Amino acid sequence: MRSLAVLALAGCLVMSCAPDRAAPRKGSLLDLLPKGEAAGWARDGAPEEYEGEALYIYINGGAEIYHEYGFRRVVLQDYESPPGGSVSLEIFEMGTPEAAYGMFTFKRSGKGRTVPLGNGSELESYYLNFWKGRHLVTLTGFDEEPATAEGLLAIGKAVEARIRDSGAEPGLVKALPAQGLKPGSVKYLRGLLGLNSFYPFPTARGLLFDQGVGGAYESGETLIILEYGSAGKSEAARDGLSGFLSGSDKFAEEDVESAGIRAFRDAKGRAVCLAGSGTRLLVAVGPERADCLDLIGRAR
Fold this sequence. Notes:
CATH architecture of the largest domain: 3-Layer(aba) Sandwich
Order of helices and strands: HEHHEEHEEEHEHEEHEEEEH
Number of helices: 8
Helix content: 25-40%
Low-confidence stretches: 1-26
Number of domains: 2
Shape: elongated
Distance between the termini: 35 Å
Strand content: 25-35%
Strand order of the largest sheet: 7-8-9-13-12-11-10
Mean pLDDT: 89
CATH class of the largest domain: Alpha Beta
């Protein structure tokens, strides 16, 4: 995948695919940049835009996850205040509201606090992330002064007012049992890169899902729910993944009494339990097999 990205980038450079600083066009992300609504904060320098594969020019080594979620384009703009404050603004346009939500869940730390912005937000120290409709907005300050935090919120509110579309969390998120779920730990998944942020599976066998969601629990377990669209595909995915794990020297299979469940112990001693549930594959990882099985039972 990386080699393909490099080839795409090389072709982009040959064709002079540089940051777009042309005049705003209809529907341009430039239209979302505040022009004075955030009192005391003014633009510092010219904005930059990157589209498609040109994201590799802007983000070296981190663009793949954006493309996995459905990246389209991004606009960048720095802001400054007279006392010397500085804030960097990034507005990402994704293919769908679900994709924007997914990238938001990937970028948030789960340690910040929610503020009334967009369809979901997190403010931590001198970082602010929120999503609204197909857009993910990231603001970064360069110090922890109260004035900088106020600037993050002021600029964020100005951007939010310019974004006209809206969205809602994907319905699959509600499939995670709520009891014991850590706030801010939920991630919406669209591919293997996002999945591996939860658990580094050594194979893609059985893991080519349509969409997924994962969350961490206070008791120490992680639950991952992968949607395949049909019970047959879900069963095939469970068999394919469990077949690979049972033949790997890094996993030891364990006997379980529950029908339709496969249980393993990985090289770090963690229990890894797999079970089908209609069109979905449930994967629970944690210290104790019994707790993983209980979590799967609650999700079925």
